[in-house]
């Protein structure tokens, strides 16, 4: 997803007149570790979490310093809790081909949540709901991913915890353009 700029047309038909806008979404390298929850995996087990977040985290992964075995050694339980993110991340590019979308309101989720995003793109793959929550970064002038959620469908759960009671929007991918990384 990096080094691409994705453009989507968003149509909100919840009001008297449809509201249409175009958004630009980028997956900057410094957001990668946050999507996988790397800092939360190691937080209680290392003094300095700097190498597990932001651009420094991306660089340590790229240089082979951080890998799955490192995360398992630091916190096997935390790694296991986040394992679904690693397993299903490959589906995110497919999600962007024709995503379903919501205006996300955390107060409408049936359980307490720390999810903080403006829009939630999602789709169902392999009896699992894959979600990417995005929010506009005013300083950067474009949208960035804020959260990556996986909800499996089971006998006890329909996997729609973050979808139910939310305002649906129409999302259409306009373009995917490669950008130069400096």
From TrEMBL:
Domain named Phage-Barnase-EndoU-ColicinE5/D-RelE like nuclease: residues: 16-179
Pfam families: PBECR4 (PF18813)
Top-level taxonomic group: Bacteria
Protein name: Phage-Barnase-EndoU-ColicinE5/D-RelE like nuclease 4 domain-containing protein
């Amino acid at each position: 997803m990096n080094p691409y700029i994705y453009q989507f047309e968003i149509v909100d038909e919840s009001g008297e007149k449809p509201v249409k806008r175009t958004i630009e979404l980028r997956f900057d390298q410094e957001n990668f570790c946050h999507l996988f929850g790397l800092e939360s995996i190691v937080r209680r087990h290392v003094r300095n979490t700097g190498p597990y977040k932001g651009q420094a985290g991306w660089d340590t992964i790229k240089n082979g310093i951080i890998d799955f075995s490192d995360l398992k050694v630091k916190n096997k339980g935390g790694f296991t809790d986040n394992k679904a993110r690693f397993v299903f991340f490959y589906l995110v590019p497919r999600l962007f081909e024709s995503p379903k979308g919501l205006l996300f309101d955390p107060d409408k989720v049936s359980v307490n949540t720390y999810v903080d995003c403006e829009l939630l793109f999602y789709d169902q793959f392999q009896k699992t709901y894959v979600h990417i929550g995005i929010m506009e970064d005013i300083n950067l002038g474009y949208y960035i991913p804020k959260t990556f959620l996986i909800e499996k469908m089971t006998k006890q759960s329909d996997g729609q915890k973050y979808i139910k009671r939310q305002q649906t929007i129409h999302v259409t991918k306009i373009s995917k353009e490669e950008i130069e990384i400096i």
